[in-house]
């Protein structure tokens, strides 16, 4: 192997490690985790919450670990809740969201149809974390999803790419590095600012008519950086900075989706704006 290739492989590993550094400790057990309540295909949406909620995990996440805090929160409030695994690579268990993002969007499309068929709901709402908040926009824009979705709520979504606190800016200094990342983990390459995928996704505007968009960001994000790049532009968009709701909240990229009940409360407001209540620091004990 040429010396420069010896450098590139550790760099690719570093990119993976940076994204995974704060994954929940239960990740290694995701394949054997038991769903207790969500992904219940006998659940029928209520009049109060007529749209099932589909949860879309982030890069290196999965359908269980990403939502151990939030799925029960929604269930307790009367929602039918579902989550999927997407972006699997052959021979890579547990850590998903690494495959080509357009293919992941097709997996989401099939899953939404499955949920709609089981529940009888005409539309679902989507809540996604990180890549899971951005990838559904491809489904909405190119795969007919806008007719099947009421709202998309992105928690720390990398809507315009993720620099990993500037780490991706090092790629040009290693000839062939980006090609290596693209070949081994295409889902990561698609999230590099300026990628062909993101260029296509954002061309012609961030949103599509008929869908309500909410983005919840944290100024302490270390992955989807700079954090303002998470925001969307459009006529039916609400961009929210977590610290504007509670200045004391120090949640970063993972905690904002995994454990932050202030975020949970604001997502619930986005899903049911007619019954929204103010989100404050006190929402942490709601």
Describe the structure.
This protein is of the alpha/beta class. The chain has helices at residues 3-20, 70-75, 101-119, 131-134, 136-142, 177-184, 186-189, 196-202, 242-245, 255-258, 261-271; strands at residues 53-56, 81-84, 124-129, 149-155, 212-217, 237-241. Helix 2 (70-75) links the parallel strand 1 and strand 2. Helix 3 (101-119) packs across helix 5. The chain starts with a helix and ends in a 15-residue tail after the last helix.
Binned, the helix content reads: 25-40%
The computed structural class is alpha/beta
The biggest beta sheet, please?
6 strands, parallel
Number of helical elements: 11
Q: What fraction of residues sit in β-strands?
A: 5-15%
Low-confidence stretches: 1-35
| SSE order, one letter for each helix or strand | HEHEHEHHEHHHEEHHH
Average residue pLDDT: 90
Q: So what's the overall shape?
A: globular
What descriptors fit this protein?
286 residues, 32% helix, 6 strands, disordered N terminus, single chain, globular, alpha/beta
Q: In a few lines, what is going on in this structure?
A:
The protein has about 290 residues and is an alpha/beta fold.
How do the strands and helices of this protein lay out in sequence?
Elements: H1 3-20, E1 53-56, H2 70-75, E2 81-84, H3 101-119, E3 124-129, H4 131-134, H5 136-142, E4 149-155, H6 177-184, H7 186-189, H8 196-202, E5 212-217, E6 237-241, H9 242-245, H10 255-258, H11 261-271
Parallel strand pairs: 1-2, 1-3, 3-4, 4-5, 5-6
Helix pairs in contact: 1-6, 3-5
């Amino acid at each position: 192997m040429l010396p420069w290739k010896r450098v590139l492989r550790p760099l690719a590993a570093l990119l993976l490690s940076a994204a995974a550094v704060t994954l929940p400790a239960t990740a290694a057990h995701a394949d054997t985790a038991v769903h207790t309540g969500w992904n219940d295909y006998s659940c029928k949406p209520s009049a109060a919450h007529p749209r099932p909620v589909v949860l879309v995990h982030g890069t290196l996440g999965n359908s269980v670990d990403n939502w151990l805090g939030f799925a029960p929160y929604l269930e307790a409030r009367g929602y039918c809740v579902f989550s999927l695994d997407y972006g699997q690579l052959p021979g890579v268990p547990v850590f998903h969201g690494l495959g080509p993002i357009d293919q992941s969007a097709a997996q989401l499309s099939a899953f939404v149809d499955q949920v709609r068929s089981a529940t009888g709901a005409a539309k679902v709402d989507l809540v996604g974390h990180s890549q899971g908040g951005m990838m559904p926009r491809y489904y909405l824009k190119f795969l007919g999803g806008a007719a099947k979705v009421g709202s998309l709520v992105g928690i720390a979504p990398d809507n315009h790419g993720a620099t990993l606190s500037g780490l991706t800016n090092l790629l040009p200094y290693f000839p062939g590095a980006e090609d290596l990342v693209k070949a081994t983990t295409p889902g990561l390459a698609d999230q590099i600012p300026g990628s062909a995928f993101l260029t296509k996704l954002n061309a012609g505007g961030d949103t599509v008519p008929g869908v309500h968009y909410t983005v919840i960001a944290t100024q302490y994000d270390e992955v989807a950086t700079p954090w303002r790049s998470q925001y969307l532009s459009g006529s039916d968009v609400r961009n929210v900075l977590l610290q504007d709701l509670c200045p004391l909240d120090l949640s970063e990229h993972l905690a904002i989706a995994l454990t932050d009940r202030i975020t949970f409360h604001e997502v619930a407001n986005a899903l049911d704006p007619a019954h929204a209540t103010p989100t404050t620091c006190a929402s942490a004990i709601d």
